Amino acid sequence: MPGTSRDLTRLRTAITAFFALDGFLFAGWVVRIPAIKHQTGASAGDLGLALLGVSAGAVLTMTLTGRLCRRYGSHQVTVVCAVLLSLSVALPPLTHSVLALGAVLLIFGAAYGGINVAFNSAAVDLVTALRRPIMPSFHAAFSLGGMVGAGLGGLVAGALSPTVHLAGLAVVGLLVTAVAAPTLLRHEPPSAPTLLHNEPSSAPTPAASAPSAPSAPETSRRPRGRTRGLVIVFGLIAGCTAYGEGAMADWGALHLEQDLDASSGVAALGYTCFALAMTIGRLSGTALLERLGHGRTVVAGGATAAAGMLLGSLAPSLWAALLGFAVTGLGLANLFPVAVERAGTLAGPSGVATASTFGYGGMLLGPPAIGFMADWLSLPVALTSVAVLAAIATLIGVATRRAVPN
Fold first, then answer.
1. To the nearest whole number, what is the mean pLDDT of the chain?
2. Which uninterrupted H or E stretch holds 36?
3. Alpha helices (H) in 131-214, listed in sequence order
């Protein structure tokens, strides 16, 4: 167990590296989907079914990963999942049929879902030990890693085949894991805030001096009764947030191009504005949480996102819509990190797994739900559902702001 401020700083750096690596590898795979679609000869429908492998693997693995973290420790599970994710990202371009692609994406999705639960659990333990709301900084690292991975993928797409590109990402992933893993494997997750300050104690208590089994604090936080209900509530906040992220990623550019007559290049700026604003919001999230607390941050973020999405979806001008997308990104930025942290504080890895599963479910539900509503009504009206769910997250934040101490 880490016993000094330096140890905790090293742990924070290592966990941050895994968050950034996760975003980097996932974005690198996403930008090569068109090339792999062509390679496998898949139709749009066939590709959609194959891509469900990522989602299915992630959702099926998240609950199991919570149990593995309780049994073996979140640090060990993070390292194992990082290795699996790095290796599996190289597999899609080696396939030549839709069936084979779906199978390897199931493995990739399992590793992706597993590492998300594991490093979020490790981050929750560190947040508790540091007694500082630094969870948004980890998710900012994920966002930055994704931006770097997507940008690099765009640069090399014309020069490197998907096989070479994704094999290179696998090597990078294994190298980062080799550098960051020893720090995680050397230390148990911190559980006692008194370890932070390096304060001398003339008479240490047995609890402070005895080595702790990694599973003990984890098991004691299994959700039951009222706690389980609160975990589900925080999972709903995560789901509402991820719904908006998925909707913006898949439908934002089309709205600008189809409804506001933007060129394809300008339309692409829509998601860029959203993602950049979300990253900035997460980088400033710790200061915001220290100033407002978790409950007020959720309320303010949800209300901001609702207002921003109403502007982004219903504004009659392109630049007003872009501004609305940016405001939406700022508003949603810290809702998911706060929801996962609150769920993890209540129930350990099981809480993180539950909130992550709800979040991933929201991201899966968003794009098709927007599509159905756009067919029935119109795309601008369908996008207002993001504002509705952000408003719901706000109301949940109001109702639960005293449920878990800041």
1. 85
2. helix 33-40
3. 135-156, 162-186, 206-209
- How many other C-beta atoms can be found within 10 angstroms of the C-beta atom of residue 103? 16
Of the candidate ranges 117-126, 240-249, 298-307, the one whose mean pLDDT is the lowest: 240-249
**Distance from chain centroid for Cα 270:** 20
Q: What is the pLDDT of residue 137?
A: 93
Q: What is the pLDDT of residue 201?
A: 38
Distance CA 358, CA 264 (A): 33
- Cα–Cα distance, 355 to 375 (Å, whole number): 30
Question: pTM to 2 decimals?
Answer: 0.81
Burial of 372 (C-beta count, 10 Å sphere; 0-12/13-18/19+)? exposed
Name the residue with tokens 């119109």.
Answer: 378
Distance CA 133, CA 33 (A): 36
Alpha-carbon distance values, 350 to 42, 67, 223 (Å): 37, 7, 7
Please say whether the beta carbons of 16 and 116 come within 8 A.
no
Q: At what angle do helices 98-130 and 74-88 cross, to 10 degrees?
A: 150
